[in-house]
């Protein structure tokens, strides 16, 4: 990567629907150079940076691109004290910031599902992104035993949130998320796939939550 030193905090892979080219969208988390980098990885042996956008220039506090999610033509970045930043990536060579949502805490990570962003800033905020240029908060969950680094994953009507343990939230009504289960594991990254929840912390833990299994069976 050209330019100053970097620290990459998150990455997502996406395919351009018109060209078929494959891109890695990378969150650069160094405060002096925080932003989004877009790398063409269509040829894995010869990756090439094709786009770069600095974010939150001139803002104060812990301003780093900690997490990102990509949905269609937009990238959504959790940028610490600078909140949620929305970037139009329809032209990978010229990404443009199109939306901002300020949050009280430090935006650490997020996932995107069904036109909503689930943003963690110490607590969980559910954001309507149906209009990417005007993201708006529509739901909030106060994380018990506030943790500086909770992580979130979403599948179906359920959000899986780690703080000091994992909580399962029913988010079918995004304006009123409700915890329906919990499990006492150390905080760590969380991912959901095929009816299982995968957690890292002191090793790898794999959980089979009844709510997710019943939800998947109901959709069949």
List strands and helices in order, with pairings.
Elements: E1 8-15, E2 22-28, E3 35-40, E4 48-54, E5 67-71, E6 74-78, E7 84-88, E8 96-101, E9 109-113, E10 116-120, E11 124-128, E12 136-141, E13 151-155, E14 158-162, E15 166-170, E16 178-183, E17 190-193, E18 196-201, E19 203-207, H1 210-219
Antiparallel strand pairs: 1-2, 2-3, 3-4, 5-6, 6-7, 7-8, 9-10, 10-11, 11-12, 13-14, 14-15, 15-16, 17-18, 18-19
Describe it.
There is one protein chain. This protein has 220 residues and is mostly beta strands. The protein has one helix and 19 strands. The chain has one helix spanning 210-219; strands spanning 8-15, 22-28, 35-40, 48-54, 67-71, 74-78, 84-88, 96-101, 109-113, 116-120, 124-128, 136-141, 151-155, 158-162, 166-170, 178-183, 190-193, 196-201, 203-207. The strands form five sheets. The protein has a four-stranded antiparallel sheet, with no helix packed on it. The longest helix is centred in the C-terminal third of the chain and has 10 residues, at 210-219. The protein is globular and about 45 Å long. The mean pLDDT is 87.
């Amino acid at each position: 990567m050209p330019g100053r030193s970097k620290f990459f905090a998150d990455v997502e892979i996406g395919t351009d629907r018109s060209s078929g080219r494959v891109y890695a969208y990378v969150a650069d988390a160094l405060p002096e150079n925080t932003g989004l980098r877009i790398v063409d990885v269509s040829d894995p042996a010869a990756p090439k940076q094709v786009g770069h956008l600095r974010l939150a220039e001139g803002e104060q506090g812990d301003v780093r691109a900690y997490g990102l999610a990509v949905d269609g033509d937009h990238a959504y970045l959790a940028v610490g004290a600078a909140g949620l930043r929305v970037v139009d990536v329809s032209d990978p060579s010229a990404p443009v910031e199109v939306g901002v949502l300020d949050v009280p805490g430090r935006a650490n990570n997020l996932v995107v599902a069904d036109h909503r962003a689930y943003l963690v800033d110490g607590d969980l905020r559910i954001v309507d992104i149906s209009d990417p240029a005007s993201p708006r908060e529509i739901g909030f969950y106060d994380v018990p035993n506030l943790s500086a680094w909770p992580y979130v994953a979403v599948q179906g009507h359920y959000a899986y949130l780690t703080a000091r343990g994992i909580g399962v939230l029913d988010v079918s009504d995004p304006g009123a998320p409700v915890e329906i289960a919990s499990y006492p594991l150390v905080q760590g990254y969380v991912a959901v796939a095929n009816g299982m929840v995968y957690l890292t912390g002191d090793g790898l833990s794999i959980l089979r939550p009844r709510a997710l299994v019943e939800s998947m069976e109901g959709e069949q």
